[in-house]
Amino acid sequence: MIRLIFVAILFLIYGNFSFVINDIVVFSLINISFYTVLKEKNIKIIDVFIFILSTFVVEVFVGLPILIGIVVLFIPLLLLNYFINNYNFALFIKSSIIFLMSFVTFCIFDQTLVFRLLNLQYFTSIFILILIFLGLSKYGKE
Amino acid sequence: MINNKKVFLTYIICFFLFLTLILFPNYNSKTKLFTYFLKDKVESPFIFVGNEIKDLFLILNLNFDHMNTIKKLEDDNNYLRSINKYLLTLTSKYSEQNKIFHQSSIKLPISVGVQVLGDRNLVYNKNFIIDKGSNSGLLIGDYIIDGLNIVGRVVNINSNTSEVVTVKSINYGDEVFINGKSYIVSGTNNNYLSFLRQKESTEIPDFQVGDIAVVPLDDLILRLGIVSYDNNQPILLTPDITNFENLRAVTND
């Protein structure tokens, strides 16, 4: 239900703010769709519908043929799901896989993003954020 | 892996639906346009509420700030009025001259104002969606203009939304007139259009750098770009599309 609400909110947000927000919206939708298929071993019918809905919204926004997401991505993602969930990876690794896959897909849509990310300011802020995350995860409880 | 028949059944339905949409691209674009129409309708109350809240904050602003702004605006207004008077004089002279030479006053295109829905940054593709469709009298091929500059053409149409291919898109093509001669140009996904030549054509282009390429409609002339050269190849530089606020769709062609 939370994912459905998120998809609806992202659907409404797209196009009403700057292009950076548009990028974040598309990236979030890709993340939701990948997470929905990869989160657990047994996929429910509601997960499939959320996957179809989120990929549909991405397809409409990006200008891809409708339903190409489910047709092309669903079976490879199921295989990856089998691989990830049978090896019982840590949540951190699982999340990283979902993030990296979404990021690669997003970079395919907007290749100029790579050049923007290599911009020193972006790169520095990402680096600082990663260091803060690692620091908090190791020493946060002290 | 999956122990649910429904999932596979859904996948199979989606697969055949996808094939249908691929085989009939018209339905594909109609679905997209309808989704944008739905988005426009659903988000309009939120936008209304957002604007109301924004107005409320503005009202709650200090009166002092407004007084200062009014004072500043009054000064600006006086200055602009003086400029306006000067420009009005010039325009009236130009209109009279135009009337004498062309025996008619300046024609303005019959058009409808349009608003862009969704992405207006042209990041993922060089097309955009507008909030007018066949109900507003738009047809496929109608020009979308900013002033008298061509921004794009309508490629797909629905009852209340349309898809516009911009002059920057590789899918854009048009016949233009430069110095009275016609040429075919095509978009390049960059800020310029390239000239298409017929195979084995030996005709030398009859234009120079700075010539304006125009598209004549019934009784008005729209501008597409300015001739330039890149690596000894003629190109047509298009104006930068940065302002999507005052777009209009020409409906009298």
Model description:
The complex is a heterodimer of chains A (142) and B (253). Chain A has 7 helices and no strands. With 142 residues, chain A is an all-alpha fold. Chain A folds into 2 domains: 2-109; 111-142. With 253 residues, chain B is of the alpha+beta class. Chain B has 2 domains: 5-59; 108-253, Beta Barrel (Thrombin, subunit H). In chain B, helix 1 crosses helix 2 (25-59). The model of chain B has no long low-confidence stretch (mean pLDDT 83). Classes of the chains: A mainly alpha (142), B alpha+beta (253).
Order of helices and strands of chain B: HHHEEEEEEEEEEEEE
State the order of secondary-structure elements of chain A, H for helix, E for strand: HHHHHHH
Number of strands of chain B: 13
Class per helix and strand makeup of chain A: mainly alpha
Could you list the spans of chain A in which at least 5 consecutive residues all have pLDDT below 50?
Answer: none
Most extensive chain contact?
A-B, 34 and 34 residues
The separation of the N and C termini of chain B measures: 59 Å
Q: Secondary-structure blueprint of this entry?
A:
The complex is a heterodimer of chains A (142) and B (253).
Chain A lengths: L1 H12 L5 H20 L6 H18 L5 H20 L3 H19 L2 H6 L2 H20 L3
Helix pairs in contact in A: 1-2, 1-3, 2-3, 2-5
Chain B lengths: L4 H19 L1 H35 L3 H40 L8 E3 L2 E2 L9 E4 L12 E4 L2 E9 L4 E5 L6 E6 L2 E7 L4 E5 L15 E5 L4 E10 L2 E5 L10 E3 L3
